[in-house]
Fold GTPase Obg.
Amino acid sequence: MKFLDLAKVHIRSGAGGGGCISFRREKFIEYGGPDGGDGGNGGSVWAEAVDGLNTLIDFRYQQHFFAKNGQPGMGQQRTGKTGDDIVLRVPVGTEILDEDQETVIADLTEIGQRVLLAKGGNGGWGNLHFKSATNQAPRRSNPGQPGVERTLWLRLKLIADVGLLGLPNAGKSTFLAATSNARPKIADYPFTTLHPNLGVVGIDEVEFVVADIPGLIGGAHEGRGLGDLFLGHVERCAVLLHLVDGTSQSIAEDYQTIIHELEAYGGHLADKPRVTVLNKIDALDDEERAAARAELEEACGCEVLEMSGVARQGVTEVLRRLRLEIDDDRLRTRISEDEPEPWQP
């Protein structure tokens, strides 16, 4: 299945049916009076987050979604049929944006969450509604309201617990393949990963989801490379796993490049908890490993873990640290949700 995280759709709700002008005509009833029914309401357009989807590829082949119009009213006080609704089924984590691609209309983060995108037009009144003491035989009715037509953007931000960051060939896909059943493409050249990959990782009988995105390079926030297109997928993560290639000749510079791109991207991405790991230690001897770790610790100012995804060295320690960060984030979220709102007179 191809991955697509941005799609443009055109939607239109149904128009309401017109009201009916009709009079009762029955044997032995000379003045039957008006009996025109109301028009049916037009169908609405909804969006719903469903389980089992992780791409917007379906919206590449169908961009237009038009709900049914309401049927007009009929005689004998019969109301027209209401138009059928249309539901856009999207993956969990989908943001719905207005045509300007900036105004967020809805953010669907839970399974079953629904949002109304375009309400159907109301049906018009039949002439029965206009009957009064001074107007016993009204010959007027209302037309139905027109539907709402608009253009929207769907933007998918994958929901994962851990987001993998690093320069191209830092070993992110290798780590994901070594710790989960995900099988991302792995090769010895930059930008092997062209789209995000998700993997479920287990440690100490606890599972969490890891998202691997294409590697970042300098200037990614300005559109260079591929990573800037997918940074949104790690915005929802509880913790970021920053992998630094231990075989690089400029470890501190590689680390600062990623941090600078996070700060330039914005969205509080640089403020998220991070676990910094020196990767590919199997290719270093003890002296080189110690020097590389010291250089990275000086650059980041925090503890650095060591790991080799290929040799499976230090992987368990990294996963346990990630689990602790995820638990802390969930605890902070739960406490913030339980805090009572400040009292106001």
